[in-house]
Amino acid sequence: MATEEDIRKSLRYILKTNDVQLITPRQLRRQLEELLVLEDGCLDENKEQLSELVQKELVELHREESKDPPTKTILHPISAIPIPSNGILTDKEGQSYVNLGSNALRVTAKRLNGEKVLDIRKFERDGISKELKAAPEGIRITLEQYNILCNYSDQIQTLLSPCPCYRSQGSLLSCFLFSPVLSLDANIVQHLLTNASNFAPWLLPNHIA
């Protein structure tokens, strides 16, 4: 014998799959008997009980349909920030820059007193805001100085190569071509020479603030 739970589930299925405005009580009983594998007409004795159960199920279905569907949270994959293939990035001020080896050392294209320059300085993370901020001291190379550096790249590479006669100078290279007080860390010079093809586009007007 079918349980009350079986009857309720079968009734709900019939009500969902039929037009409740058109199906008659008799048709509903016949479908219910078929679903529960009962003899034809055996449910006619329980018309009133079935009618009450049908009303309850209709009320429940109506309540479910009237509820707003739950809002689904769509999770979008977090993609990495796209980095241009030429390595040139843009800061918050709209200035173009390139990281030299790491985010801590940066070369930025600027205009100083109407002259195009490459500003080289370290960026340190602020202990409070956690933002990268430029170090107060840095090195600026003008367009003319940069071109001279590139023209003498072979000689400078030799100067930077391991040699006892230069070890006493430490890791600093005095660039007398540029200024008597200008010194560049050997690693910085190596980066400038190695990435010359990336720095060259900076010297165009659209990369100078």
UniProtKB/TrEMBL annotation:
One GO process term, biological-process aspect: regulation of DNA-templated transcription
User: What GO annotations for molecular function exist for this entry?
Assistant: DNA binding
Give the InterPro entries listed for this entry: DEK_C, ssDNA-bd_transcriptional_reg
SUPFAM superfamilies (alphabetical): ssDNA-binding transcriptional regulator domain (SSF54447)
Pinpoint the DEK-C domain residues.
1-59
- Highest taxon listed in the record's lineage: Eukaryota
Specify the protein name.
DEK-C domain-containing protein
